[in-house]
Amino acid sequence: MKTFEEKWTAWLDGQLTGNELIEFEASLPDKSAAKLEKRDAKKLGALLKRELGAHVIANEEFFSHQLRERIARENVEPFREQAAEVSTWWTIRRLFWTGTASLALFLVFAVFVMREKNPAEQSQYLSQILNARVDPVVSPNATVSMFEAKGDRVTVLWTEGLQSLPADYAAK
Amino acid sequence: MVRSLPFVTAFIALIVSTAPGLRAAETVWSGLVIAENVAQPESIPPELTRIERLLKELFGYNQFQVIGQSSKTLKTGQEDWLATSKFFGLRVDARGESEAGYVLNLKLYKEKELLLETDAKLSKRSPLVIKGPQVGSGQLLLVLVVQ
Question: Which of A134, A156, A168 sits opposite B115 (nearest CB)?
């Protein structure tokens, strides 16, 4: 069952025939106004066809090429966008450069710190003799001195002139 | 996860490098050593192996015998101990611990007679050698090592 609008459109296009046409025209309240409208619609249709008709493509191959390029571009672009989303700040290259820069910075600081701390460091890691005393009554001519064998990291307190003792004193 | 890995590594390194207080208790070996030149030298005691070359070069002897020794595990750095032989005694009085080592007061006795007294800072990486009196044809040495 067609609606009035459908029948109206079909009537304007001249597609109603037979009983359907007779019935529809009979149902129109103002047949002359309707026919006038139909004529205007046909005129408008003819005008639109004339003015807005498709232009003839002069060079088919050119347009075909343009279309293929555009399709190819549109296929590539999503992959690029996807790749851009996946990549993070820590790409291999950035990681490498960050590591190199950090190492360089560390070396610079290490050199400065080592240069400043070097004299103190030697005494820190080698044992130190703070003072030494011998009994002047027992060993009146005794002297003491101290030195560091830095190659072996050994600190030595060297005494001279201590009272000599017999070999028996070497007993365990 | 990958992004945070360098920061986690750096943090762990920082913690490890700034935690010197987590050291285990250390042992100080103190020895009374007689250095001599003999025809058939005995092998050097294991405590002195590390400084064997230096001892031989410095004192010119080929045999080093331990006549008295003591190993003391330091927990507070305030301990004291005694290494004795038949006639000698080495009294060690620890007077505190620092980052570099231990502050020690050392007294060498011949029987009850004080021969030598010294204050020293014993580093954990650096042995201390003290040349004592001549004994017969040899030499008494005092050696302290943080093991």
Answer: A134
All residues at 6 or more sequence positions from A84 whose CB lies less than 8 Å from its CB, including other chains: none
Distance between CA atoms of A95 and A110, rounded to whole angstroms? 22
Helices (H), A15-168: 18-27, 31-51, 60-86, 92-125
- The Cα–Cα gap between B30 and B145 comes to 7
ipTM: 0.82
Residue B145's SS3 state is: strand
Can you name the residues that pair with B65 across neighbouring β-strands? B34
Beta bridge partners of A167: none
Pair type for strands A128-134 and B113-123: antiparallel
Q: Model confidence over A9-19: pLDDT tens digits? A: 888 888 888 88
- Residue B85 three-state SS: coil
pLDDT, tens digit, for every residue of A56-77?
556 777 878 888 888 888 877 6
Token pair, residue A72, equals 């190819």
Pairing of strands B88-97, B128-135: unpaired
Q: How close A69 comes to chain B (CA, Å)? A: 39
Q: Which of B67, B100, B115 sits opposite A171 (nearest CB)?
A: B67
Q: From CA A65, how far away is CA A59, in angstroms rounded?
A: 10
Give the number of other CB atoms < 10 A from CB of residue A120.
10
> Chain B: residue nearest A91 by CA?
B3
In this structure, chain A runs to a length of 172
Cα maximum dimension of chain B: 72
Whether A164 and B123 lie within 8 Å, measured CB to CB: no
